């Protein structure tokens, strides 16, 4: 059953992305219902795209549904989607960046969270972000310049600035293990310097937890644009900051991201840079408009 959501109308003198927002919400909710039906009936096949990199029938059906809903309203827009990606870089103009199920491994085990993530970027700038956490039906969303919301309530990052009092989210390497040793050193250091570490298994959800003030920071490597494109805008609109591991803006395609409150982002950047070699802090040609390679 689709849940009813009170519409929050934004003044068109500030932005004009209300239709895009409502379309993304509707696409996420329809995909969410589809994913719930797959989960309830256990009626999906699992394939491996790579080591520990799963795709299910539910991923493919969710992506198809999302694209169809958006194309009905915006037939000329472009798409960068996980399971049917045809772009190797972020194109100019309007592009929807889609993860049909972020946390497919979680989904395949019936382990929450797992999410639908939909973002609209225009000329290299995020304009709309929607993340639906399916198991708990939490709908996070944002429009550039308007703020970030969880369902109908505005959200903001945590007021905690001290590392020792902060809770940090991360993701564990699951297919590329070449940097696992320095990663584990950082993890050990953060265990001793913070209030604790959490690993949910869905980066879009981690980012939304930063935006909602549930955790103070997040870092990970090996992510793709569809993992972060929506959640990053939601964090920024909630008052948080985003960077790559060098402190730059190459996080969308750069496979290295830090997000959180401004103080905690600086803390995490220092901790990472103290351990990782310079050559591992960035991916070659990693800027928000450059290629996936």
Distinctive features:
single chain, 293 residues, alpha+beta, Fructose-1,6-Bisphosphatase, Chain A, domain 1, D-Maltodextrin-Binding Protein, domain 2, 2 domains, 7-stranded mixed beta sheet, 5-stranded mixed beta sheet, 8 helices, 34% helix, 25% strand, globular, disordered C terminus
Describe this structure in words.
With 293 residues, the protein is an alpha+beta fold. The protein contains 8 helices and 14 strands. It folds into 2 domains: 138 residues, 2-Layer Sandwich (Fructose-1,6-Bisphosphatase, Chain A, domain 1), CATH 3.30.540.10; 118 residues, D-Maltodextrin-Binding Protein, domain 2 (3-Layer(aba) Sandwich), CATH 3.40.190. The strands form 3 sheets. The chain has a 7-stranded mixed β-sheet with strand order 3-4-5-6-7-8-9, with helices on both faces. Strands 11-10-12-14-13 form a 5-stranded mixed β-sheet, with helices on both faces. A two-stranded antiparallel ribbon has the order 1-2. A hairpin with a 2-residue loop joins β1 and β2. The N terminus and C terminus are likely disordered.
Count of discrete domains: 2
Strand content: 15-25%
CATH topology of the largest domain: Fructose-1,6-Bisphosphatase, Chain A, domain 1
Q: Unreliable runs, pLDDT <50, ≥5 residues? A: 1-6, 289-293
Derived from helix and strand composition plus strand pairing, the structural class reads alpha+beta
Question: What is the compact description of this entry?
Answer:
This protein is an alpha+beta fold and 293 residues long.
